[in-house]
Records
---
Amino acid sequence: MTTPAASPATSPFRFFDLHVVRATALTPSMIRVVFGGDDVSRMASAGRDQRIKLFLPSPGHDAPAVPRDVADPDRYTAWRSLDPSTRGVMRTYTIRELRTSPAELTVDFAVHGDEGPASRWALRATVGDRVGVLAPVVEDNVAYEFRPPVDTDWVLLTADASALPAVAGILGHLPPTMPVRAWIEVPTPADHQPLPAGLDSAITWLTTPATTTEAIRAAALPAGVPYAWVAGESSTVKSVRRHLVRDRGIPRTRVQFSGYWRNGTSEDHLMQTEEAA
Ligand SMILES: Cc1cc2nc3c(=O)[nH]c(=O)nc-3n(C[C@H](O)[C@H](O)[C@H](O)COP(=O)(O)OP(=O)(O)OC[C@H]3O[C@@H](n4cnc5c(N)ncnc54)[C@H](O)[C@@H]3O)c2cc1C
């Protein structure tokens, strides 16, 4: 009797070797980078706040060192096992757009000077620069958080520039009849962007250092059952969430919150802290 071979482990994510096709300044604080590569057409996105992992070359290298097996299901461990001094620098970003013809991935970088490797890289991105991307190959994947329950009557969004690409994806995904109230904090008025608008959507732009929590506190919110999605700098996210849950009485389960970055802390340090915890 023969035993059938076990089917190979399949993973809804894989590594892609990509290069910069073009890079343009969208607004003073946002650089749009469009990536191409042989198999971008195999990449998938759920839209909304679809996150990806971006791997940038470490200093002195032309291309990021990432695990060779592009479909390794344990790819994160494989990346961790590479030499930290030469492996690609990993950062989290959002798919702003995934096109099929031509097959291109667009990522919008909120730039904040030379302080972090990703911001530094984006400020100098040039046609042909190579990066690695860990991205889904199926639309139905675990790497997005905007999941409003079916009984949602209206949606509340708050973001800063780092979460603006995700807000654009969420607004593009929502049916035009869904009422939306959004607060978006950007460094300067010139950083406002045109966003998809439904029949009853109100977007309030705030200029740093405005306090998003105070702006929401002063607002009259729609009646009905809300779903809130809150992202951006960690302390602002915490403050907004506290207001929504404690002062506005929105159930915790209806408030999705994500710290996209933390003042004074790099993403490497945040990852190490999370792993240690
Ligand atoms: C799910 C998810 C999706 C994200 N999507 C996007 C996206 O599409 N576009 C985008 O621009 N960012 C996005 N981010 C945020 C991005 O990953 C962080 O801003 C990241 O820290 C940038 O890496 P860096 O190398 O530039 O800075 P790091 O090396 O991580 O940090 C260096 C210093 O810069 C500060 N810093 C980091 N980010 C910012 C910022 N945005 N503004 C001001 N100071 C900052 C840190 O506090 C630290 O002091 C996302 C984050 C998450 C978790």
---
Amino acid sequence: MFDFHCHSVFSDGELIPAEIWRRVKVLGYTAIAITDHADHSNFEFIIGNLLKIKKAFEGLTPRLIAGVELTHVPPEFIPELIKESRKAGAEIVVVHGETIVEPVAEGTNLSAILGGADILAHPGLIKEEEVKLAAEKGVFLEISGRKGHSFTNGHVVNLAKKYGANLVINSDAHSPSDLLTKDLAFKIALGAGLTSEEVKKIWEIAKKRFL
Ligand SMILES: [Zn+2]
Ligand SMILES: [Zn+2]
């Protein structure tokens, strides 16, 4: 089990990275990406701090992955900030997509895909052309375990299947109780319209790409 999107105290999460790590270890995870909310003001702070604990925990299981979630960044700045984040050492760049429960700027999904984000989180009512483009560019679309963001999981799965886009199941945890067990992640994916075989395949593909 692994998860490539959660939050620590370096943005609005409740736990320090060491506790996230400990809690997912108990849940049997092999890897966890911490991807705090970032914009131009704090991406270096987040990445720098996450790389410190990553280095300290090197060789331990679960593997810690240092990331960011670019959040409410104006769409025209997203491609550049993805590059800057990678330059600062981010191993995974998530973009906070156009969830229907927040006023995320229109054009964010497209910018994230064109900018080559690793994962477009909770893409809401993403358009068909954007899903097609995500498939071409290898951008993973997220099935979200988070309340509200998860309302459109079925839509995302439906279009991803149609156009062959890759999917990833993430908790987007902010609190300890948000962390997913493997069993719950599996059920969320089934509830979004995937078969058991498809969920297993998704996990295989995500593992190959990010681990
Ligand atoms: Zn988000
Ligand atoms: Zn998030």
---
Amino acid sequence: MKKIGFIGLGNMGMPMSSNLVKAGYDVYGSDINEKAEEAFQKLGGKIGVPVEELSGICEVIFTSLPSNKAAEAVYFADHGLIENSTKECIFVDTSTISPELHQKIEKAIKEKNGHFLAAPVSGGVVGAVNKTLTFMAGGSKSVFEQASPVMKAMGENIFHISEQVDSGTITKLMNNLLIGYYTWGVAEALTLAEKSGLDLKQLFEVLNVSYGQSRIYERNYESFIAKDDYNPGFTLKLLIKDLQFAMELSEQQQVELPLSKELLAKYQEADTEGYGDLDMSIVYKMIQDRNSSNKEEERLV
Ligand SMILES: NC(=O)c1ccc[n+]([C@@H]2O[C@H](COP(=O)([O-])OP(=O)(O)OC[C@H]3O[C@@H](n4cnc5c(N)ncnc54)[C@H](O)[C@@H]3O)[C@@H](O)[C@H]2O)c1
């Protein structure tokens, strides 16, 4: 396999596609944002081929899109991927979108005798840059085996979950439900620790080798909180999207998840307060700010 398409050159798609270029593939990038396409061209990618022509050229086409709406547009629009799919081309969606939409895309592509894997990724922008992503793929095992050498140029752990197309998607939603808990937990624990006079750097050193350790604590503390820089990363809005999908799944499965429901409501509140486009670790700052304004109010009473 030599020619690869990549649609969605954002925080994840740009480093992923750039690693494909570095691995020696001819990579055809596409994004609605012209600046992203220009940046990709500077990294050695090819641009300017319309989406409808990509499946005639590429053996595998990856998508990395921010929402159901964007994925619907790329796959189902007139002149979109499905209308022009060929049986020679494998489509791999690495976006975290709803399990239903992945089923719908698979059905439509199969009707055109094409091949589709839903393969969300974990590991963040750092993992995308360093080729250490985890892929969680659902769909045909033989199609997975054909596409996995290309995934290996972008990641370290490439899993085939099952032939059920949304099995990787559901696996990913469980991952992000836990990320939601860890992120909020780290934010509250660190706020209390700081107010109680602890040094956050030392706390991290100690807890990082204790049971309070988590990869999210490490990520959120080292890359964002310690630097007081909340440029994303993984935006709060994207986390909310994934928690919403997890809650929809819990309703379909008739599983009561009271704390998770509350957690989603808390993140939605943070979004309403204007934190949505920052990295999810911003909830630490938000909780800290709320607590310092509480103190101010007490002093004034
Ligand atoms: N950022 C992370 O840490 C992370 C980690 C794992 C998984 N993900 C998932 O990966 C996906 C992408 O995340 P991201 O952080 O890169 O998002 P992003 O918003 O940075 O990038 C999305 C890109 O898609 C482009 N796009 C939107 N609509 C399009 C369309 N119709 N046609 C072509 N391009 C279009 C945007 O212009 C943007 O460049 C999401 O589903 C997210 O949940 C993100």
